[in-house]
UniProtKB/TrEMBL annotation:
Tr-type G domain ranges (all copies): 1-158
Taxonomic lineage: Bacteria, Bacillati, Bacillota, Bacilli, Lactobacillales
Keywords from the named record: Elongation factor, GTP-binding, Nucleotide-binding, Protein biosynthesis
Protein name: Elongation factor EF-2
Record-level GO BP terms: ribosome disassembly
PANTHER family (UniProt xref): RIBOSOME-RELEASING FACTOR 2, MITOCHONDRIAL (PTHR43261:SF1), TRANSLATION ELONGATION FACTOR G-RELATED (PTHR43261)
GO MF assignments: GTP binding; GTPase activity; translation elongation factor activity
Protein biosynthesis among keywords: yes
């Protein structure tokens, strides 16, 4: 499917599904996209936990966490500040995301190198342009069966 989309110039986003299953590894999946498909995959989220401990996702743009109510099968979630135990990693991943977006967008690169503040709107617009130009592929995380992370991925489509 990926190669067909490549042949026909179809923009793509990636949803790393089944984050609630045994063996789930978001970082390995992103790395595989780079290595096996030669895709410039840019993680725009990070999971909170994995396997049976998967609780939700952290939005690396807005630096907030969406934590799901396990009893509601993803129909109900709460947006909270990034939990303290994930703050440092989330900040590091956000910086990495910004660098990766800067690599595919000259305007962002100029601001990044100049040490200027880059707004979320500018980052999202740059990533959208890069996605449509097939220069980058945003990566989301979740569990479709439990309806976790699906909402944010769908928001990423538009």
């Amino acid at each position: 499917v990926w190669r067909q989309a490549e042949n026909y110039g179809v923009p793509r986003i990636v949803f790393v599904n089944k984050m609630d299953k045994i063996g789930a590894n978001f970082d390995f999946s992103v790395k595989s996209l780079h290595e096996r498909l030669n895709a410039n995959a840019i993680a725009v989220q990070m999971p909170i936990g994995a396997e049976d401990q998967f609780e939700g996702v952290i939005d690396l743009f807005d630096m907030v966490a969406d934590v799901y109510d396990e009893d509601k099968l993803g129909a109900k979630w709460e947006t909270i500040p990034v939990p303290d135990e994930y703050k440092e990693e989330a900040e590091s991943r956000r910086e990495e995301m910004i660098e990766e977006i800067a690599e595919v967008d000259d305007d962002i690169m100029e601001k990044f190198l100049g040490g200027e503040e880059i707004s979320n709107e500018e980052l999202k617009a740059a990533l959208r342009r890069a996605t449509l130009d097939l220069k980058a592929f945003p990566v989301f995380a979740g569990s479709a069966f439990k309806n976790k992370g699906v909402q944010m991925m769908l928001d990423g489509v538009v």
